[in-house]
Amino acid sequence: DVTRKPIIAGNWKSNLNHYEANLLVQKLAASLTAEQLAAVETVVLPPFTDLRTVQTAIEGDKLAIVYGAQDISQHNGGAYTGEIAGAFLAKLGATYVVVGHSERREYHNESDELINAKNKAAFAAGLVPIFCVGEGLEIREAGNQVEHVLAQVDAGLEGLKTEQLKQIVIAYEPVWAIGTGKTATPEDAQEVCGAIRARLLEKFGAEVADVVRIQYGGSVKSGNIAQIMAKPDVDGALVGGASLDAEEFASIVRFPE
Ligand code: PEP
What we know:
TIM Barrel, Triosephosphate_isomerase, glycolysis, 44% helix, cytoplasm, Triosephosphate_isomerase_AS, alpha/beta
């Protein structure tokens, strides 16, 4: 039997200035015990401009909270105005980086090829991608969600080494459930997360499939997290809106209780 440590990550999106970021991290730390933080890997994903503040708050108080960024450049530095290279994120103590969030796929036309390059750039900088996949409403209504998501998984993982595949976190986020208050049912989440794990098993074997953590994302809150986490192939959650409130996010992290 394999145990995968649950991972709950809060995607702040373009919210919270550095003062608000500091406050939220302090409140979160005050709301969670060492035991709770040991049981569930707890991650915050602030805007780039808050990373130094979050680093200072977490390192200064030796908090067992980890953090990461919401995007990464495919390039490792150079003449790419406005881009943030992975090395800069690693230097700021980031552990994770979100790659291929549906808002970036949609508003910035990020392709599967670019997302694959960003997954590789993350590993090259010593970061772990939280690699996002998920179908839009039309695809869901046509019943093609599994096929669509597996194609995204195949493309995003192309060329990664076994040691990298074993570390990656995959976030299944049905686009129609993000920020809409519409949560996929636990059965919907399990259908796709189970299909992702089956694909990992088929392509890379049990050494990868058994250890990769797969998150569900889409209107997760304290009231629905436990039922979602009860599903065998769901190992965590990527939380947007509900991660902006320290007490609510802490309640989500306390889901095992
Ligand atoms: C997200 O942005 O990854 C997300 C899941 O958002 P929300 O929880 O607000 O639906």
